[in-house]
Automatic annotation (TrEMBL):
Residues 87-165 form the ACT domain. It is found in: Cytoplasm. Pfam families: ACT, ACT_6. This is Glycine cleavage system transcriptional repressor. The keyword Cytoplasm applies. Keywords: Cytoplasm, Repressor, Transcription. One of its GO terms (biological process) is regulation of DNA-templated transcription. It comes from the Bacteria. One of its GO terms (cellular component) is cytoplasm. CDD domains: ACT (cd02116). The lineage of its organism: Bacteria, Pseudomonadati, Pseudomonadota, Gammaproteobacteria, Alteromonadales.
């Protein structure tokens, strides 16, 4: 079995996940990891699958037969993951450049962003626009985490940071 990363977008409608899963199952594939989102009128997905290598072309053809679907796919390498990982949540008043500030501080510590999921919403008690992000970072030891934490708090008094693990 070969691992692949598939990214796709398609005008949103009910039944899309079932359609994708059906095409994959029919060819003996296995759905391993995914991020699925409804954004405006689009369905967007990042999916890691395992599939017999000889069925890759057939899977791509069958998924591209879904009306309006745009797909990219890549073969993945087996990379062992034994680096220390930390999950954090960051919340602050939304402002231009917020992601750039956060990612710059993380990169300056020599830390990799393995997963980044964010959204913007209104604070329930004030209506102020808040930016929220959940991040998985690696490699992170206690010293590098505390250094990053200090730098993030320097971004402003409105910032809340929670370690999730």
């Amino acid at each position: 079995m070969q691992r692949y990363l598939i990214t796709l977008q398609v005008p949103d409608r009910s039944g899309l996940v079932e359609q994708i899963a059906q095409h994959l199952s029919r060819l003996g594939g296995h759905w391993l990891d995914s991020e699925l989102r409804h954004i405006d009128a689009l369905f967007a997905a990042i999916i890691v699958i395992e599939l017999p290598q000889e069925h890759w072309g057939e899977l791509v053809d069958s998924l591209e037969s879904i009306d309006g679907l745009t797909l990219t796919g890549e073969k993945l390498l087996e990379i062992p993951h034994d680096s220390p990982v930390v999950r954090i949540s960051v919340i602050g008043n939304d402002r231009p450049g917020f992601v750039h500030q956060i990612s710059n501080l993380i990169a300056a510590q020599g830390i990799n962003i393995e997963r980044f999921s964010s959204n913007r919403e209104s604070a329930s008690h004030t209506g102020i626009s808040l930016f929220k992000a959940d991040l998985t970072l690696s490699p992170v030891n206690e010293q590098s985490y505390h250094a990053l934490e200090s730098k993030l708090y320097e971004m402003g008094d409105d910032l809340q940071l929670d370690r999730l693990d």
